[in-house]
Specification:
This protein is mainly α. It has one domain (2-178). It has nine helices and no strands. The two termini are 27 Å apart.
Amino acid sequence: MADLDFADKHFPRWIASMAEDVRALAAAVGRPELPKRLRAPLVGALNYLFRSLDIIPDWFPGLGFVDDAIILRVGAALAAAVDAGGAAGLDAVYKLGNEAELVKELLGEELDAKMLKYVESLPAQEVRGRSADTVLKDDQQLKDFLEEVAAFADDYKPATYEANDKYPEKLRLFVSGKLR
């Protein structure tokens, strides 16, 4: 029952706030004064949104965007762990990063460790011919990436979430099956 309570409390909010969360992380990516080490995990997490094969297919009822929300939170946690040199305006990144603890609570230690390792690998992975390195090294690539992310946020329509006591276990099954 605790799993269902967790899912009912957090999943609808995560799904509903996806566009806002994406915009917040993109704003940080677009700030060249921030360290590349801080921006790279955010690019990796945002680039994940454009993968054709992600952990849970976006069309999957109830859970399709939950994996995306989880990736954003873990990516934000990785970014928040980097010294921003006193830069202001990162509250949304820190807030999302703090919610990575909720992911850990849901997934458990073993799956959370796999998720963390996976999200750490995302900046190096190419999606649509770009990795975090290519986006952050080239002004035009960065501009194009941020425009594509903004279009995703503008077009995003939150899926309907209906409580289902199987969702937390299905989520863990997807994660354990995809992240070996």
